[in-house]
Amino acid sequence: MAERILGKTLATVSLSVALASVTVKSSGCCSIPACRNSFLSCGFHLNSNIMSSSNGAKENSHNKARTSPYPGSKVQRSQVPNEKVGWFVEWQDYNPVEYTAVSVLAGPRWADPQIRNPAGRTGLIGRGLLGRWGPNHAADPIITRWKRDRSGNKITHPVSGKNILQFVAIKRKDCGEWAIPGGMVDPGEKISATLKREFGEEALNSLQKSSAEKRELEEQLHKLFSQEHLVIYKGYVDDPRNTDNAWMETEAVNYHDETGEIMDNLTLEAGDDAGKVKWVDISDQLQLYASHSQFIKLVAEKRDAHWSENSDAECRGL
Q1: Which residues does residue 261 pair with via DSSP β-bridges, in sequence order?
Q2: Of 277, 293, 243, which Cα lies nearest the Cα of 172?
Q3: How far apart, in whole angstroms, are the C-alpha atoms of residue 282 and residue 142?
C-alpha cells in the first residue's frame, strides 16, 4: 500500500544535491579557482554520503531523517535499517507511518505528494512539519571571526597549532539543540536576503527593535553581508523533519569578519526561534542540529582553522 502511495517509479526530482563549487564573491563577482578545487575534494564526502543512500545507506548517513519521535509530536516512524534505506532496494513490506502536522494541513497544498526523498526511506510519509511536498528551501548564514586575546592577538590551539575560529550559534527553542542561525526562504525571496534576515531575527533580535535601531542595525548588517563570502554547501540536508515525501535543502554561506570590527559593533541578542545566542569555538567536539556540524567543519577547513586535536581526523572525510 505504502509503495503504491509513493509511486512505483522514482519521480524526476531536480535537486542541487551536489556541493556547490566554492566561489569567493564580492561586488565584483570574482572567483578563485584554487579555492574551488580544494573544496571539491573535501566536499565529495558529504555528497557521496547522500548519494550512497540510493543503494543502501552508510552507517553514518541519513540518520537524523530516521529518528523518532518526529519533532513536535509523539509519532514513531517505522524503523528503516541501513540496508533498506535506498529506494532501489526492494522492500515489499515497507509500511511507513503517515503524518502531517495539523498546522501544515491548514496551509496550502503545494505539489505532487508522490515525489520521493532523494536520500531514501525515512519510515514516515506525508509532510510532517514541512509546508511543501518535495524540497523545502532554507538558508544558513555562518558568521565567523578569529578568537583573540585581550591584546587583540589571534589565539592558536596548543595541539594543532592552528588559529581558533568562532561562529555565532543559537539554541533552538523547538528542540534545545545548538545550531547555525537560519530559516526558510520566503516565496519569491532571494537567498542573500534570507541569509541577512534570518541572522538579524535570530541572532540580533531585529524584530523587536525600534525603527531607529533597525536602521542602525541594517547599516551594520549591510557591511557584513556585502563583503566576500564562501558558499559552503548547497543541497539536501539530513534533517529530523524529513519524510519520504518532503525534505530540507539548504544553502550554507560563510561570512567572515577578519578583523572582528564589524561584529564588535553588533550586540548578540536571541530572538524569533532562538532561545539563546553566543560565540562558539569551532572544533570537532561540537554537537549541532541536523547537518550543521558538517558545514562548520567545511568552514574550518576553508579558513585553515583549528578543527581537531587528532591530526588523522583532519585528513579524513566527513
Answers
A1: none
A2: 277
A3: 12
Can you give the pTM of this predicted structure? Answer: 0.75
**Torsion over CA of 190, 194, 195 and 201, rounded to 10 degrees?**
160
Helix runs in the chain, H state only: 2-6, 33-51, 102-105, 191-203, 211-225, 261-264, 292-302, 311-315
* CA–CA gap between residue 46 and residue 44 (Å, rounded): 6
Task: Count the neighbouring beta carbons within 10 Å of the beta carbon of residue 190.
Answer: 11
Q: What is the length of the chain?
A: 318
**pLDDT tens digit at each of 318 positions of the chain:** 444 444 433 333 333 333 333 333 433 333 333 333 332 223 323 343 443 333 444 445 689 999 999 999 999 999 999 999 999 999 999 999 999 999 998 877 655 667 899 999 999 999 999 999 999 999 999 999 999 999 999 999 999 999 999 999 999 988 889 999 999 999 999 999 999 999 999 999 999 999 999 999 999 999 999 988 999 999 999 999 999 999 999 999 999 999 999 999 899 999 888 899 999 999 999 999 888 999 999 999 999 999 998 866 555 544
